[in-house]
């Protein structure tokens, strides 16, 4: 079964940092762009960032630019989302996704289109 596995979530104080990891199971990232999405309680899922593993390019939501950085370790087949200067409004379940159609609208949309595989999600809580 093909799936993604996220890790690294937790409770952090405002202004703190966390690094999320995403690892594929049953396949490799070779043919995909990897996206990060999040869903806060009572809100629609939204795209946070994505990274094209072939050249390192990607997109970031305006709310995360300058604070979040997506990166990859191709040798380890792992994608990361480094989250800095975290705010309470960043509290959400974060999902990584294997994107098959690389456009800004897919990367920063709600994930209903262009995604082949999802992870189960990891909870990030930003609170004092």
Low-pLDDT runs of 5+ residues are none
Note the total helix count: 1
Label the overall shape. globular
Total strands: 11
Helix percentage? under 10%
Rg calculated over all Cα atoms: 13 Å
What percentage of amino acids are in beta strands?
over 45%
Fold and architecture overview:
With 128 residues, the protein is mainly β. The protein is built from 1 helix and 11 strands; from the N terminus they run βββββββββαββ. It has one helix spanning 104-107, and strands at residues 3-7, 10-12, 18-25, 33-39, 46-52, 58-60, 68-73, 78-83, 92-99, 115-118, 122-126. The strands form 2 sheets. Strands 2, 4, 5, 6, 9, 10 and 11 form a 7-stranded mixed β-sheet that branches. The longest helix has 4 residues, at 104-107. The relative contact order is 0.31.
Q: Top keywords for this entry?
A:
seven-stranded mixed sheet; about 130 residues; globular; mainly beta; about 5% helix
Concise overview:
With 128 residues, this protein is mostly beta strands. The chain has one helix at 104-107; strands at 3-7, 10-12, 18-25, 33-39, 46-52, 58-60, 68-73, 78-83, 92-99, 115-118, 122-126. The N and C termini lie far apart (39 Å).
């Amino acid at each position: 079964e093909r799936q993604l596995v996220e890790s690294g979530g937790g409770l952090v104080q405002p202004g703190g940092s966390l690094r999320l990891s995403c690892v594929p199971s049953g396949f490799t990232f070779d043919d995909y762009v990897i996206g990060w999405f999040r869903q806060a309680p009572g809100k629609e899922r939204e795209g946070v960032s994505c990274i094209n593993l072939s050249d390192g390019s990607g997109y970031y939501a305006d709310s995360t630019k300058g604070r979040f950085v997506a990166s990859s370790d191709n040798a380890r087949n792992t994608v990361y989302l480094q989250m800095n200067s975290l705010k309470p409004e960043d509290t959400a379940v974060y999902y990584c996704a294997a994107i098959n159609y690389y456009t800004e609208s897919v990367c920063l949309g709600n994930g209903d289109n262009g995604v082949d595989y999802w992870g189960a999600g990891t909870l990030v809580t930003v609170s004092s």
